[in-house]
Design a protein that fits this description.
This protein is α/β, with parallel strands linked by helices. Helices cover about 50% and strands about 15% of the residues. Strand 5, helix 5 and strand 6 form a beta-alpha-beta unit.
Length: about 290
């Protein structure tokens, strides 16, 4: 370990860019790579070194953090980074990857002598930018000291789900949490769509639940986006939400649990995407209620 932790962020989308920026602001030595380099370039203003290839990005890094679309994408990029990786590097895998293929990720880490830490995060654009994500982590106790400054920079809280990353305890917890997030999103979208269809003032709905057990911050946040038309820039894109929903359904099938609501929600996201809302906030589930 160097005196200043060197961190590489592979994938600088909505979440990865915010994480890289906060890592640099915390005084860590940060490099970043993204498939579209122009999307990563603004990070240079915050002291992040943007590289042309994954291998260049990871060379000499103490910690490599992947924040990509899915598990196959994370594996593909880590394979491309292999010439620059060294045994003993800590791989913090924060992509929401699901259970299918998880053992391929841990197998890659084991084959190449990497210390694997399963570390998906709970939160969207705003908490990511504020460095207030909740990090859900599982990995060997010896790695905790190494990743502590990383997790402290990107999150307001770290929940350790276990010491055995290959047991995928953190990923399992993330899927459960995301199932709830998506359910609340769809519930908000459908309630407001029904209000429109029935000619009910949505403010009346929100006033009726205010302060009671049916009220919650997430309802307010998503309702504000829908009612204000603030779908861009997204805090969590519709296409990504559909991907996560299908990972959740697949995980349920794997353990004999039927998730009818989540499966229906995935279809809502798909319809919204087909209507042109794929790159908008997942509150665009609202549009799936209408044939327009």
């Amino acid at each position: 370990m160097t005196e200043t932790t060197s961190v590489t962020v592979l994938g600088t989308g909505i979440m990865g860019a915010a994480m890289a920026r906060n890592l640099a602001r915390a005084g860590l030595d940060v490099r970043a790579w993204n498939r579209s380099r122009e999307k990563a370039e603004p990070l240079a203003a915050d002291g992040v070194r943007v590289t042309d290839s994954p291998a260049d990005a990871v060379r000499g890094a103490d910690v490599v953090l992947t924040m990509l679309h899915d598990g196959p994408a994370a594996l593909e990029v880590m394979r491309a980074a292999l010439p620059g990786l060294r045994p003993g590097t800590v791989w913090v895998q924060s992509t929401t990857a699901g259970l299918d293929g998880f053992d391929t990720l841990t197998g890659f880490a084991d084959e190449h002598g990497l210390v694997f830490v399963d570390a998906p995060v709970l939160g969207t654009k705003q908490p990511a930018e504020a460095g207030k994500l909740t990090v859900l982590a599982a990995g060997p106790a010896a790695a905790r000291t190494v990743v502590a400054p990383v997790f402290d920079a990107i999150g307001g809280r770290t929940v350790w789900a276990g010491d055995d990353a290959p047991a995928d305890a953190a990923t399992r917890l993330k899927l459960v949490l995301n199932s709830w997030v998506l359910t609340v999103t769809h519930g908000t979208a459908e309630a407001l769509a029904l209000a429109e269809g029935l000619g009910v003032d949505p403010a009346g709905f929100l006033d009726a639940v205010e302060g009671g057990p049916l009220d919650m911050g997430y309802l307010r946040a998503k309702a504000a986006l829908i009612l204000g038309g603030g779908f861009t820039p997204p805090s969590f894109a519709t296409t990504t939400a559909e991907k996560d929903a299908r990972l959740i359904v697949a995980a349920g099938e794997r353990v004999g649990v039927r998730l009818d609501v989540t499966a229906a929600g995935a279809e809502r996201f798909r319809r919204a995407g087909e209507q042109g809302h794929g790159d908008e906030d997942m509150a665009a589930s609202y549009f799936a209620s209408f044939d327009r």
